[in-house]
Amino acid sequence: MTSIQSLLKTTRQQLATVSDSPQLDAELLLSHCLHKERSYLYAWGETEVEQAVQQQFNQLVEKRLSDYPIAYILGHKAFWSLDLIVTEAVLIPRPETELLVETALETIQTSKAPKILDLGTGSGAIALAIASERPDAIITASDYSNKALAIAQQNAKKNNFHNISFIQSDWFGQIPPQEFDLIVSNPPYIPSQDPHLKQGIRHEPLQALVSGETGLEAINNILNSALHYMHHRAWILIEHGYNQGDAVPLLMTEAGLQHSHCIKDYNKNNRLSMGRKG
Ligand SMILES: C[S@@+](CC[C@H](N)C(=O)[O-])C[C@H]1O[C@@H](n2cnc3c(N)ncnc32)[C@H](O)[C@@H]1O
């Protein structure tokens, strides 16, 4: 049998070939197999790991070595203050998307019981993060994928949110006519020939990532109908690629939105654009 400490050391060296955070990955996988918190690994480093646990751990390490994302192996991912269930049916929520949540919360700061629409909700990350800060909000979360919606609904239940309704819809296609105070979306925005699609993200659902040859198809589609679903002075916020910071505000203006502008993330990359009705 091998101790926790030495198992972590060998695994860290192995995982360094595929991961930017090999120590963390090794700890997450081992604590998952031991059904313990990560702190247990430090307190009990000398403890021998049972054969059966080690076998399960080795299988997970093999999976990780094939570049399979850690969040899918563990089945969950932290986002905002929440722990979200994730499967291959949904995009793994990215920390960068928290900027969209922060900005969204600022736009509804003074509204009471704001009506919000999250288009392409995936795991429900954005809708749930907003719901966690604004229990008075009335949120609609939609996705084209029924499998993704099932995960988002599980996440709402797990986190005890009752102010989100879910609807299967091709963008605005099946959303009943109404006016929202805020529309948010992190749509697919990667061009179909982008070389990144051959790397780590290849395990994530293509319909969550790719949007036509230019990557702007979904954004265009959303913007073409958005005005009909917005109250006067409502904002729409759309996350996009770092190289789409000129194109998206322009598309917003062409769609009839005002005050269109792009916001940079903490690494100074163009990350999201917003525009207002009126
Ligand atoms: C980039 S993922 C974003 C997921 C989640 N909102 C997040 O930020 O982690 C894009 C989502 O849009 C959904 N989607 C793709 N095409 C769609 C369409 N035509 N109508 C509605 N949703 C769509 C995908 O299923 C996916 O869940």
Describe the structure.
The structure is a single chain. The chain is an alpha/beta fold. It has 2 domains: 2-68, Ubiquitin-associated (UBA) domain (Helicase, Ruva Protein, domain 3); 86-276, Rossmann fold. 36% of the residues lie in helices and 21% in strands. The chain contains 10 helices and 11 strands. The strands form 3 sheets. Strands 7-6-5-8-9-11-10 form a 7-stranded mixed β-sheet, sandwiched between helices. Strand 10 and strand 11 (270-276) form a beta hairpin. It is elongated and about 70 Å long. The model has no long low-confidence stretch (mean pLDDT 96). Bound molecules: S-adenosylmethionine. S-adenosylmethionine binds at residues 90-91, 93, 97, 120-123, 125-126, 143-145, 148, 170-171, 186-188, 207-208, 218.
In terms of topology, how is this protein built?
Blueprint: E1 2-3, H1 4-15, H2 22-34, H3 38-43, E2 48-49, H4 51-65, H5 70-74, E3 76-79, E4 82-85, H6 98-107, E5 115-119, H7 125-133, E6 138-143, H8 146-158, E7 164-168, E8 180-185, H9 217-226, E9 230-239, H10 247-254, E10 258-264, E11 270-276
Parallel strand pairs: 5-6, 5-8, 6-7, 8-9
Antiparallel strand pairs: 1-2, 3-4, 9-11, 10-11
The structure holds S-adenosylmethionine.
Residues 90-91, 93, 97, 120-123, 125-126, 143-145, 148, 170-171, 186-188, 207-208, 218 line the site of S-adenosylmethionine.
